[in-house]
From TrEMBL:
<dbReference type="InterPro" id="IPR014719">
    <property type="entry name" value="Ribosomal_bL12_C/ClpS-like"/>
</dbReference>
<protein>
    <recommendedName>
        <fullName>50S ribosomal protein L12, chloroplastic</fullName>
    </recommendedName>
</protein>
<dbReference type="InterPro" id="IPR008932">
    <property type="entry name" value="Ribosomal_bL12_oligo"/>
</dbReference>
<feature type="domain" description="Large ribosomal subunit protein bL12 oligomerization">
    <location>
        <begin position="4"/>
        <end position="50"/>
    </location>
</feature>
<dbReference type="Pfam" id="PF16320">
    <property type="entry name" value="Ribosomal_L12_N"/>
</dbReference>
<dbReference type="Pfam" id="PF00542">
    <property type="entry name" value="Ribosomal_L12"/>
</dbReference>
<dbReference type="GO" id="GO:0003729">
    <property type="term" value="F:mRNA binding"/>
</dbReference>
<dbReference type="GO" id="GO:0022625">
    <property type="term" value="C:cytosolic large ribosomal subunit"/>
</dbReference>
<dbReference type="InterPro" id="IPR000206">
    <property type="entry name" value="Ribosomal_bL12"/>
</dbReference>
<dbReference type="GO" id="GO:0006412">
    <property type="term" value="P:translation"/>
</dbReference>
<keyword id="KW-0687">Ribonucleoprotein</keyword>
<comment type="similarity">
    <text>Belongs to the bacterial ribosomal protein bL12 family.</text>
</comment>
<dbReference type="InterPro" id="IPR036235">
    <property type="entry name" value="Ribosomal_bL12_oligo_N_sf"/>
</dbReference>
<feature type="domain" description="Large ribosomal subunit protein bL12 C-terminal">
    <location>
        <begin position="64"/>
        <end position="130"/>
    </location>
</feature>
<dbReference type="GO" id="GO:0003735">
    <property type="term" value="F:structural constituent of ribosome"/>
</dbReference>
<keyword id="KW-0934">Plastid</keyword>
<dbReference type="InterPro" id="IPR013823">
    <property type="entry name" value="Ribosomal_bL12_C"/>
</dbReference>
Length: 131
């Protein structure tokens, strides 16, 4: 690490929480970025002892799990093909997954991807839940 970066890190360590929050706000405005996507979960966790509102807790969820809940017998083959395409599993592994529902298909995916996966599986006839 260069001495310039080390100096900046040392200066950041000395900031109070209020100063750090103001710094984040100024960086967001100056560089037109949203720090909540990458740093937000850590920043939201720190004040939790002071009573973080439920609205803020909902905002911090950025990763979702897609769970296959039910596979009708007459739709099993179509769902199996979709699962193979979504997961890149082999035929045997995908068949075992489809036959052992409820099973998580994708973990830690974005809300948009989770919704797309849900729609694709539901079109094939499956029952899907996003957690």
């Amino acid at each position: 690490m260069t001495s310039k970066i080390e100096s900046i890190i040392e200066d950041l360590k000395s900031l109070t929480l209020l100063e750090a929050a103001e710094l984040v706000k100024q960086i967001e405005e100056t560089f037109d970025v949203d720090a909540s996507a990458s740093v937000g979960s850590g920043m939201l966790m720190m004040p939790s002892a002071g009573g973080v509102s439920g609205e803020q807790e909902v905002e911090e969820k950025t990763e979702f799990d897609v769970t296959l809940q039910e596979v009708p017998a007459d739709k099993k083959i179509a769902i199996l093909k979709v699962v193979r395409g979504l997961t890149a599993l082999g035929l045997k592994e995908a068949k075992e997954l489809v036959e052992s529902v409820p099973k998580t298909i994708k973990t830690g995916t974005s809300k948009q991807d989770a919704d797309e996966i849900k729609v694709t599986l539901e079109e094939a006839g499956a029952t899907v839940v996003i957690d």
